[in-house]
Amino acid sequence: MVLANMPGRRPLTMKLAQFIQAGKEQLLEDWEEAALEIAPQLTGADGLALRDNAHEILEFIVQDLATPQTREESACKALGKGKGTASDIGGEHGRNCFSRGLSVLQMVQELGALRARVTRAWSDEQHHLMVKETNELVRFNEAIDQLIANSVFSFSSLKEHEALLAETIPKAPFDPTANFDSLTNLPNRRLFLDRLEQTLLEAQRKASSFALLFINLDHFKQINDQLGRKAGDRLLLQVAKRLRSDFRAMDTVARLGGDEFALILKETGSSCAKEAAKALLISLEQAFHVDSHRVNLSGSIGLTVFPEGGTNIDQLMCNANLAVFAVKERGGHQVQVYES
């Protein structure tokens, strides 16, 4: 205890250190509750890591309170320039917060919660703080200040490194055509499958239904052979335009390839989907004009409805295809609803 009376050094502050040591489990429990309110993502394994990290921080504070220091050392700590364990503990805390997706504000608030809980508990214990107890709180706050400074420095360094890496990694050029058919500008198979998945998830969440329609153009190959590929492309453009105009903005009209199109009709049951499919057949029957040619067209439509016609994407796609094949075997120009 000779060090306590050395000139220029603050006296040892064992009382608060003993208080923290004795009430550590309760302090950790209170702090963990506060930290989860500040950063709800700290659950499961992350929550356990938080508690381990908090335990190390309290151990550091207890040791720090029990160690004499000069006024110069005290001032350095408040600026985050202390030596030894504080830098290690604070740096580790910053790295842990970064890896668990906390923001720097959440990290500072979390350490602030520790400050508030220890201060309140200590004040309740002492009732009326004497000068010595006040000095102990000053030492405690200096330790917290240093932890915050070291944590922020560590966190910021990782953020800067992450930003530097992002700049050095070459970014793939944005391709606006990646999700759209190059001829018709309708969603292609890739975007169609993504929208089908999103529609399925939405229907499951809302306990609603939706319809999937596959449309094949009847005898398109013969028309393409007779008029030529360029005329065939212009015919497909007109078909795409007509399909788009016949359905709602919330629905998806896609070209899967060749003369195959697909529709996703949101919030639509079996009877309404069948009516929509019949109306589409009538729309396709209206003559198209390609160059100087009048082209008469028809379609084969197979449809299935979630959930009775399939509960996942593979089932829905398979069953809509089966319905289309059934129509084609009967000569086309019909609508077939898949029935299990």
TrEMBL record:
Domain of life: Bacteria
Residue stretches making up the GGDEF domain: 208-340
SMART domains membership: GGDEF (SM00267)
SUPFAM superfamilies: Nucleotide cyclase (SSF55073)
InterPro entries with a match to the protein in the record: DGC-Regulatory_Protein, GGDEF_dom, Nucleotide_cyclase, Rev_trsase/Diguanyl_cyclase
Cited NCBIfam families: GGDEF
Protein name: GGDEF domain-containing protein
Lineage: Bacteria, Pseudomonadati, Pseudomonadota, Gammaproteobacteria, Pseudomonadales
